[in-house]
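#struct-help
A.M.: can someone run this one for me? Single chain, 106 residues.
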Amino acid sequence: MPHFSGESEGEALDDMLEQGDCPELDRLEQQARIIAKQQMLKLYETAKAARTGTQCICPSCAKPFTKKSYQQAFCSNKGRNNCKDSYWNRANDDRSMRAQFFASRR
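D.P.: on it. Structure tokens below:
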């Protein structure tokens, strides 16, 4: 990462972020999102395939829960901050944009 003499790398990075010209950081953030989605999908598929009564890990919040019915895949799906909606808002790009739009209106 190029930086000016007299500046630390951290200061140079802060300057680049403020100016908005850091394509490498954008690429790394995109890769991190892809990896996170793949891990969430793996946990979701594992929870869906598990038998009733099995200890599973919630794909959204990573809390352990006991599966109570064959279709359960999340630790909660009720209330304002439920894991099911949170998962699908992050897993689907269209739904993610819509969720961000409505979150900004609050």
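A.M.: thanks! Residues 9-104 form one domain.
D.P.: also worth noting: The longest helix spans residues 23-49.
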